[in-house]
Amino acid sequence: MLRYLLHKIALLIPTLVGITICAFAFVRLLPGDPILAMAGEHGVAPARYEELKQQFGYNLPIWEQYARYVGEVATGDFGVSISSKRPVLEEFKTLFPATLELSFFAMIFAMVLGVPAGIFAAVKRGSWFDQSLMGTALVGYSMPIFWWGLLLIIFFSGYLGWTPVSGRIGLQFFFKQITGFMTIDSLLYGKWDAFRSALSHLVLPAIVLGTIPLAVIARQTRSAMLEVLGEDYVRTARAKGLSSARVVGVHALRNALIPVVTTIGLQVGTLLAGAILTETIFAWPGIGKWMVDSIFKRDYVVVQSGLLLIALIVMAVNLIVDVLYAVINPRIRAA
Amino acid sequence: MKKTMTFAAALLAASVLSGMASAKTLVYCSEASPANFDPGTTTGGNDFDASSRTVYSRLVEFKHGGTEIEPGLADKWEISDDGLVYTFHLHPGVKFQTTDYFKPTRDFNADDVVFSFDRQFNKENPWNGDKYLPNLTWDYYTGMDMPKYVAKWEKVDDLTVKLTLTEPNAPMLANLGMDFASIVSKEYADQLQKDGKMADFSTKPIGTGPFQFVDYQLDSVIRYAANPDYFKGKEKIDDLVFAITPDATARIQKVLAGECDVAPYPNPADIATIKANKDVTLMDQAGLNIGYMSYNTTIPPLDKPEVRHALNQAIDRESLIKSLFQDAGATPAENLIPPTMWSWDKDVKTDAYNPEAAKKVLADAGLKEIQLWAADRVRPYNPNFQRAAELIQADWAKVGVKANIVNYEWTKYREEGKKKDRPGAFQIGWTGDNGDPDNFFATLFACSAIGVSNYSSWCDKDFEDLIQKAKKTSDQAERTKLYEQAQVIFAKEAPAFLLAHSQVYAVVRNNVSGFKMDPLGIHRFDGVDKAE
User: How far apart are the CA of B4 and the nearest CA of chain A, in angstroms?
Assistant: First the structure.
């Protein structure tokens, strides 16, 4: 097991190097000069431009800028935002709980609906339910998040007035953060109405962000379930005269869940990508909105360090999924 | 006795509750997070709304909803006859805000004024550079050419400050009303420096303005409370909240749902919905901006005014504006400056649509092909450069001129566009900083701005003399005359095609009173009230 783990970790190193190069290069490939972007329509006199270039280190050869960047990152220094002048890591730490909370609820939404729907579709294979569920899943998967989010806001918040339009919690609730998770913090302070407000603010963004994972999970559960239902041991279980519910719920589901767990783990990347749009629409103060703002401001430092931090999280989650998978399924370890 | 106690407790509870009920909270759905709360170091309108216009005040202020200057922290001022020395007399007894992170021990005085400016240019000042914040650039201070014009700031006594200039500069007073000229507390700065917490100066602001800072949750909510010691009198709203909402549609839905009271910049597509709603009012004003298209006046045949006039005449401007701005609307520009600005000359008109006349002139000049530049950005003064380019291309095709559209990314676009040898017609625009005509005429068309922001590379001696003279004269009536003459020359020489001044909008709930659209594009909440 330890060898397996070390092997997996060793594989991460080239990925990590690749990511630093990508983050560094992509940001520089973005059209537009950060100094001119900062100066706005005023423009900047040539002498002042050179002065600023030097101040920010953009006058150095590109490889030297990269070496500097890697050296800083290796020592845990993710730089200071050009626009806000605050350390990037500090901003990231402040904002990340919001993204995590939203992603968690999006995932709960996707799993609670996706797994049962997938099972049911598999059991009733070929029925109208199966057909329409798979059709809906395809639509959900292809839905542009931006459009879907605005549609829900206009209908549920604007027209029906059931949910708040955007934000994380009602503005009347104002307390110092403990964990950074509104739902937990409100409970720690014993404020039930704040907790309710936080939950009601989560509904729409969690649905929007959870839609794609929901579609993926439903489809994955269905196909895993179909495969398992055709296995010999299921036939044996049925032959023994077990109830259909027991066969499906115990014998088949356990085995079908292995690939589903992996799928769920791999959706973390999708969630973080989706968070960029979802957070922007719902004014959700997480790292997705932070990245978008920084791209528009040409804040090189935030964009490249933010990309790296997000990539690190996705890698960490994938590693955990790999390990979990090996724990559930010992054959993987041997391979 | 017991009864009395119960009664007293009930009374207390009732008064506390009624106190809570009467606390007025105004929620503003702002469009973006502020970079920080030190207006000297930031450049965005959203930064200024959140810092300089709420927490701080300046020596002089712009009249609420206008561009005229009125007294601020300075009650009055004198300008020497040679226009070089400005003496400001400060309002006595002004208090800096008392918060849980700072308790002032003295009133505002001349030291604060000198410090507020000194820190922006004096490299010896510990607040000028890295000790305070990394990579500080003081963009507005340098952008407004302050280092060139300011010789020194001096304290005469506690309530008198003297500013000496290197040469006369009439727009200086307007500059001092700008956000970067906000007055900060030297006592607070000294205290933070002593405690080794200098960076707090940009995250926990202290000023003399109408509201004091309470809390900022990054990228989410900013909270302010009315400053009880505000020298112009405490505000009527008790709490001011900025709910940061970047998406324009979500912002408007929030106002309609009553989750916020004021929101800026609706999408043009939402304007009909807003107008149809009975609970909110759509406020609008011609923005302090201009969309235009610069011809490079140094490259033949565009060096001939008649050719430039002909190109202007060939464009069906009315249809162009309608197609570009749609429901949002825009005021066709007759002049470089918008009608809300002083010295705007109502008698000056730009070229009218006349393709027949244009065709002949252009044929005589032999103009068959021209470059037509379009950027990839949405600007307040031009929501779609590319669409504009295509429509102008079609209009010019009708008079026998083939336009080749040139595209670049926004920053690269301006970099290429300002080059002296850039050919053709270049779409661009400007949003004013301080409401002074100099900020349009000189910034955009002075000879010295060639290669910087004079995209026409146009240097006309008569025009230049007038605007330079207007810059050195402090008498506004005389300046007005000079700028009027400059507008006549501009119309005659046509270094650019003038498009429009866009409308700027805000959505306000009907129980809010006193909110005014501001030509400078800022959102102010002093003097605003809300009925329950």
Answer: 32
